């Protein structure tokens, strides 16, 4: 009996290490059964450098190799041409089990190409250029200014947490309208369970991060559903964006169930408030490390403030579009920090790539290694916003720049992310500020800040309440905080 168990165990391990394939699999290792190479993949590394996991395997196997991550069979590619082709032709999103359990099996964001296209079109109605201009910019501007002033009174602010609050407060009102104070407070408290649980390779057991995350998700979904049902029953006003979703729920060609609508809102909040704040915090760290960049940003935002009359309050769309150097900084930050897979699919059919076969049903992870290619970018590991001078700063995807994905599943919130970051940087430049030298940015799939991402922030003068700005004469146009 024991011998039979041993034989079966060895057979199982052999099958795991040598998956079936009609052709020749790309080189690589499947690691230990089920666990695969997940722990090596999740090993923290400097977020502003190319992944050590990828670097080691590219040197060993080349730009295309196989692995096993999060219990699934994976093909990893750093070949930009192949990545773009897979992004265009394969319809099934490749998401890990941890992402599926976080968003839900039937979530429209991770369903078919057609479902995602419909969701993207809905999202663009709020976060497209017209929506940003008419509905979002003023709110983000006011919230950023308010939170920055509060930070100045306290002497410090947490960049990631502050940015996340700005997103939640802006989008919650636009989507849901006014919420009961207790419900809004409980909704905000739920967010603290998500950052640690997104990519946990563990089971949903009491006391674990995954368990707490899923419990928070259940609470959030109930809060959102209760709010929707109460508003529908009472005829109370919904937020602008939910009116669009409400129309989908009431009928038409693309009827959406209330469950789909709630999952859509939940996912919309989660993505908007967990991704951009991390990149923004890393961007502030990069700015802090480069005094010349900080000085040029101060010069640009000083000009915007000086151009305003006493009657003007806050930023206009024209002000935002004039932030040329700021956009260069943001583009460069996304180039360096976007080292997660920008193409994530499940292959529809067997795909022949040279001598190798990518089997149908495997997860394909395409990485933007082109961002670190010295043939495309001079000194690619150097943070140099000036490399974007004269280029199309509004473009969010090209063959050499793909931080927001590629193909039909391009991120619908890309323009919102860039605008939120630009406005935050604008208001930060109104103050004397510095980030602690010991602040570090690492990546464990997501950007993490083990020593926090606080900035010390102070002002020497009262805010000009007529325009909501601090006079730059106080700071001096050549002020650089090292």
UniProtKB/TrEMBL annotation:
InterPro entries: Cyt_P450, Cyt_P450_CS, Cyt_P450_E_grp-I, Cyt_P450_sf. CDD domains: CYP90-like (cd11043). It is a single-pass membrane protein. The keyword Metal-binding applies. The keyword Hydrolase does not apply. It is found in: Membrane. GO terms for cellular component: membrane. Heme binds at residue 411. Its main location: membrane. This is Cytochrome P450. It comes from Eutrema salsugineum.
């Amino acid at each position: 009996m024991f011998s039979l168990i041993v034989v079966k165990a060895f057979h199982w391990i052999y099958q795991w290490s040598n998956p079936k394939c009609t052709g020749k699999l790309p080189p690589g290792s499947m690691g230990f059964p089920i666990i695969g190479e997940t722990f090596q993949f999740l090993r923290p590394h400097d977020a502003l450098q190319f992944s050590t996991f990828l670097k080691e395997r590219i040197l060993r196997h080349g730009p295309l190799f196989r692995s096993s991550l999060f219990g699934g069979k994976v093909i990893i590619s750093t070949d930009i041409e192949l990545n773009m082709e897979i992004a265009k032709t394969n319809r099934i999103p490749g998401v890990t089990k941890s992402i599926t359990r976080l968003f839900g099996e039937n979530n429209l964001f991770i369903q078919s190409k057609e479902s995602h296209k419909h969701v993207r079109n809905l999202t663009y109605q709020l976060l497209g250029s017209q929506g940003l201009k008419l509905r979002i910019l003023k709110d983000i501007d006011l919230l950023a200014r308010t939170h920055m002033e509060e930070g100045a009174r306290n002497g410090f602010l947490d960049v990631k947490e502050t940015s996340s609050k700005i997103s939640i407060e802006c989008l919650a009102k636009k989507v849901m309208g006014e919420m009961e104070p207790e419900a809004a407070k409980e909704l905000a408290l739920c967010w603290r369970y998500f950052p640690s649980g997104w990519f946990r390779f563990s089971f949903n057991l009491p006391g674990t991060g995954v368990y707490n995350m899923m419990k928070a998700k259940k609470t959030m979904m109930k809060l959102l559903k209760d709010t929707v049902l109460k508003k529908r029953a009472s005829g109370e006003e919904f937020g602008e964006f939910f009116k669009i979703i409400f129309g989908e729920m009431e009928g038409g060609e693309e009827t959406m169930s209330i469950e789909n609508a709630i999952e859509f809102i939940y996912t919309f909040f989660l993505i908007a408030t967990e991704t951009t704040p991390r990149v923004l915090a890393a961007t502030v760290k990069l700015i802090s490390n480069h005094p010349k960049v900080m000085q040029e940003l101060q010069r640009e935002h000083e000009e915007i403030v000086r151009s305003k009359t006493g009657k003007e309050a806050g930023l206009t769309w024209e002000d935002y579009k004039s932030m040329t150097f700021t956009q260069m900084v943001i583009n460069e930050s996304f180039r360096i920090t976007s080292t997660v897979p920008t193409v994530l699919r499940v292959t529809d059919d067997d795909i022949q790539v040279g001598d190798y076969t990518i089997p149908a049903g495997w997860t394909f992870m395409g990485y933007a290694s082109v961002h670190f290619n010295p043939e495309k970018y001079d000194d690619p590991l150097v943070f140099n916003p000036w490399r974007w001078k004269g280029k199309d700063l509004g473009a969010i995807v090209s063959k050499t720049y793909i931080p927001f994905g590629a193909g039909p599943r391009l991120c619908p919130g890309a323009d919102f992310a860039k605008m939120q970051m630009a406005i935050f940087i604008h208001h930060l430049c109104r103050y004397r500020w510095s980030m602690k030298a010991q602040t570090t940015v690492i990546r464990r799939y997501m950007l993490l800040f083990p020593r926090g991402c606080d900035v010390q922030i102070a002002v020497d003068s009262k805010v000009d309440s007529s325009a909501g700005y601090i006079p730059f004469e106080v700071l001096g146009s050549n002020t650089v905080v090292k």
